[in-house]
Amino acid sequence: MSAMDPSEPATTSDGTFSSSAIPFLEALRGKIENRAADGGNLAVLLIECGVIGRIDAVWGYHVGDAVRDRVISLLRSDVLRPDDLVAVMGRDDFACVLSAIEDPAVALLAAKKSLRALDAPFWIGDEEIYASPAIGIGMYPAHGDQPEILLQRAKSACALARDLPGRIADYGADRDNSATSKLVYENRLRTAVLEDALDMVFQPQYDLRLGQIMGAEGLLCWRDPALGMAAAEHAFAAAESAEKVTDLVSLILNRALRIVSEFRYSAGLDLRIGIKLPARALRNTEIVDVVGRALGTWSRRPGTLILEIGETALLGKEAVARETLGRLKELGLKLSIDDPGMALSSLFWLATMPFQEIKIDVSASRDLAGAPKSAHIIQSIIELAHHLRLDVVAVGVADDATAARLKELGCDLMQADYKGPALDPEQFVERFGFG
């Protein structure tokens, strides 16, 4: 199916459009006019097949073309009615128009039929190849009354569907706004990384046993002129979308290790430094080399770097992330669990991971000194962690009385706003330095 020029007919003999979007959009416009006249509904399904580009790379474009034609054939025979339309919108993208439907349930049914049709294997020689389709739905008139808008909104829904278990989504204005925000964050983050425009603040950590400052957590501080203060999780999500996770981790690590080295030489502070990473960042195996290079560049002992891992549930699902974690442990650095949403049951399998530290949030225990039941719960967690050979860092400590009680219960370290908020490097040295 070749790309069309203006002199070519809009469709092939079976009603399938070529890869040019213009004839498809004009035909969709005609369908919309028909529905406007009779007060009916129609739906646009944007189907991302998810395999043809990879087939092109492995077996060649002629094989990809054959699979593309097979997809169109399956959609026409198993899903669409004679008056419906199908178009090739890109190498892996197909658009279907359900010309007249009674309600959105029909569009959802057609999307499910499409998934079933495309879940069957494509045979290439003796190889079974499976597509990984995702489908977005745009409805007329609910989601728009112009062909370009309907197609864009179906595409927006398709992008969301890629991350859903059912792989089908319909358009929602909130989702469109979310996709827009994601794209804006992605591009602004790319610029910030290239221009080295990300800052860090440092929150002190105290050794409850010795009663003195022992370390700090380096917190990403991204002040964007247009977006304002951006949360670290937004930065990592944007980096993941832009395939810049390794660059972001490298920037954070080198910035933190440089500054903590300056603390040592200019202020007499020889501190450990903690950096939090989402577990999904461990999918990028190059991070091990990034960490090794950063430690060498700033002449830091591996044991003074603590990587605090959040979203630990992902470690149970992805072997690559677990392997990266193991390789990081082999470097000699310390691995800490920093996951407020972690279920207690997770400790059973987390005990098999190479962690040496766990953070617990005690902010819910407002009066720990006067609340025996709360104290017993926290003591049990601390004792369990120690049995697993994990040091315990308490966060959300409210006051000296709570800190003293945590020390009695065997807690090792704490990080608390009342003892010291996160400070920029100059403020940190001014408050805690010996110079």
Automatic annotation (TrEMBL):
Boundaries of every GGDEF domain copy: 40-175
PROSITE patterns (alphabetical): EAL, GGDEF
Pfam families listed in its UniProt record: EAL, GGDEF
All residue ranges annotated as the EAL domain in the record: 182-435
GO MF annotation terms: cyclic-guanylate-specific phosphodiesterase activity
Listed name of the protein: Diguanylate cyclase (GGDEF)-like protein
